Structures are given as structure tokens and as C-alpha cells.
Amino acid sequence: METLIIGLEDVLSIEDNKLDRHLAMFRGLATEFRTVILTCWDRERAQRVLRTNLVRYDVLLDKGDSALDDVSWKVAKVRDCLGQGWPVGLYLDVDPNAVRQVYTLGVSALLLTHHLLRPSWLPSEGLPRAWDQLVAAQEDQRERTTEVIYDGVTQRPV
To answer: What tens digit of pLDDT does each residue of 106-125 get?
Structure first.
């Protein structure tokens, strides 16, 4: 059986509030894989979040007092699983750096995102712009990006 390795923080929980889409996907995957949960939280908190969200897992690894930064620790745990002879079928995380480094180990990795994880991705609070205003803004942006500087003078190509 292949192993699914998942970073707990932000994938399954945002401050103990479950993310239904992530949980549904995780539960589906957990039926096909041996599941290893990685967490940088203390073990008791991680166990409480997993119990609260009814998450089944085989192994829970907490960072404890490791001197490694979070990304390095996660990558080291994936290496440890591979070193134990466990075929790692999939790695899930919200941290693009961890996903990138695990992918370089030859492990299929999936970067998860959710609009609540990155508030800056949320739309502005104002009303939606009219279509003609949006088109005008895009044309203005296109004109500014096609400006060319010749001898210190900004010119637009013809």
C-alpha cells in the first residue's frame, strides 16, 4: 500500500475550523493510502483537531523540539518514510516550498490552496466594476507595458 503524507496545518484545519472541501478530499484519499500526518503543532493539539474532524490516520509525526525549520523538517520526514521502504504515493501541503522540495525527491506532490488561507487573495470590498471600465483598465495597462524607453525618453511603439 502506498503512503499519503499530509501537512496538518492549514490543510485540514484553520484554527480548529474544518475546511469541508479539504476534508472530503482527504477522506477519499485516506481510503486508498496508508496515512502519515505531519504537524508542527504540539501533539495534543494535533490529536484534538484530528479527532474533532473525524480524520483517520496511521502515523502522526510532530515536530517537537527539532532545530530544523518547518519546510526542512517536512522534507526530512518524507525522506524518512522513503528510507523505511514505504512507497510515498502523494504528498499534500499548502506550503509551496515544501511541495517543491518534496517533488524534487520524485514524490507526487499536490499544493492545496483555499481562499481563507490567503486573505490577500480575496476580492476587494467595493462593487464589481462595469465591463467597459474593466476593458479600459486592461487597455491602459497594456499600453503602459508596451512603452519603450529610447535615450531616456518614454515612447510608445507605432
So the answer is: 999 998 876 555 555 545 56
- What grid cell was written down for 133? 471600465
Q: Quick count: other Cβ atoms within 10 Å of Cβ 141? A: 10
Query: Which amino acid appears at position 81 of this protein?
Result: C
Examine the domain organization and report whether 32 and 87 are in the same domain: yes
Nearest Cα residue to 110 out of 54, 28, 1: 28
Domain that holds residue 92: 3-118
Q: Are both 111 and 138 inside the same structural domain?
A: no
Q: Is 117 in contact with 30 (CB distance < 8 Å)?
A: no
pTM equals 0.69
Alpha-carbon span 21 to 15, nearest angstrom: 16
